Amino acid sequence: MPEIVERCLSAAPRGLCVLALDGLSYGVAEAALAHARTRPLRSTFPSTSTTAWLTAVTGAAPSRHGALGMVYRAPGTDCVTHLVSGDTYAFGPCPPSGKPLLHGGTTLFDRVVEAGGDAFVIGAELERLTGEWAAALLHGAQVVPSPATVLDSDSVAVVERTVREVEAVLRRTSEVPFLVWAYVNLDDHIHMHGYDDRLHASLRLLDSAASRWADAGWSVLAHADHGQVPVAPRAGLLDAWARLDSPAHCRMPSGGAGRVRWMYPLPGHERKLAAELGDALGDHALVLTPDDLDERGLLDATPAVRERIGAVVALATSAAFPVPDPTVAWEHGSLSDDEMLVPLAAWNAPLAQDA
């Protein structure tokens, strides 16, 4: 994505707006964004926001930047950390190690500024975040403060707010084309309601706004981080996960993201725990090791990966998989096309030669 953004910005007569659509699958976007040219992109593994957005702005593979899922082992400790909230979970004391949770890198915002331009970020949800992930994601950007005091998860309200804030930035005057990168949080709505009529209405609003900006001479791109699929976690599988995710079997609580989860078995218990988990989950999951992920081309088993994820990894293969939050109706993280295939859409922007 950094190369695509740079190429489109260099050809943009007035500037480029990138709409970062959280949670939108390719099939839904292709049907709803009627005035855009749309093509599919493949998400990262895991197919989740923390991993995919950092790859999208840096171009670095997850095995390099180390932002693996939402919850993973803090290097050098026996606890896991929630990458966005900073909360830690352990079966015992967990002194900090002082090692970074992730490895940042040069962002597309850094690259625009280095070339003499301006890079603005809009996203009320992101500007409220602190910690390593938000700092790495937004490095080099000018974050435009949102006037919003209450953040509504309704997708139409999210889009209406985002459009207002984008248009306020597009009214700025500049001698050189500039970049506006706007985070559009559709994800919270989809987790609870799926791709319902309200979601489709919000996409029509986005399509209209992007078309209006394109007609005014702006170039517009939109892309997503992952899609979502319906989930219906089975009580027996939730119980089985909770039984194995305990000090009797593991060094620390499990990590992962939605439909991809991993356990940290006690030393010497890796094969035993993998066998028990495989038996418990049956056809509802694929139970693998980090080496298996590497062999399948999903995630290189680099040192950054090995020190963060568990030795026993479960990938959902059905809706019954025991996701961490059984109250949600839709989830993501695993390998289905609806999770992995995401849109790249363009209004008044070139898509030729995109990788």
What is this entry, summarized?
The protein has 355 residues and is α/β, with parallel strands linked by helices. The chain is built from 15 helices and 16 strands.
Give keywords.
Gyrase A, domain 2, alpha/beta, Alkaline Phosphatase, subunit A, single chain, 355 residues, 21% strand
Structure description:
The radius of gyration is 20 Å and the shape is globular. It is built from 15 helices and 16 strands. Helix 8 packs parallel to helix 10 and helix 11 runs antiparallel to helix 12 (270-281). It folds into 2 domains: 2-65 and 102-229 and 336-347, 3-Layer(aba) Sandwich (Alkaline Phosphatase, subunit A), CATH 3.40.720.10; 232-327, 2-Layer Sandwich (Gyrase A, domain 2). It is 35% helix and 21% strand. With 355 residues, it is of the alpha/beta class. The strands form 4 sheets. A 7-stranded mixed β-sheet has the order 2-16-9-1-8-6-7, with helices on both faces. Strand 11 and strand 12 form a beta hairpin.
Main beta-sheet annotation: 7 strands, mixed
CATH-level-2 architecture of the largest domain: 3-Layer(aba) Sandwich
Enumerate how many helices there are, as a single number.
15
Low-confidence stretches: none
Portion in beta strands: 15-25%
In the residues, how many domains can be counted? 2
Helix residue percentage: 25-40%
Question: How many runs of DSSP E, i.e. beta strands?
Answer: 16
Rg estimate, integer Å? 20 Å
CATH class of the largest domain: Alpha Beta
Mean pLDDT across all residues, rounded?
95
CATH fold-level label of the largest domain: Alkaline Phosphatase, subunit A
CATH homolog superfamily of the largest domain: Alkaline Phosphatase, subunit A
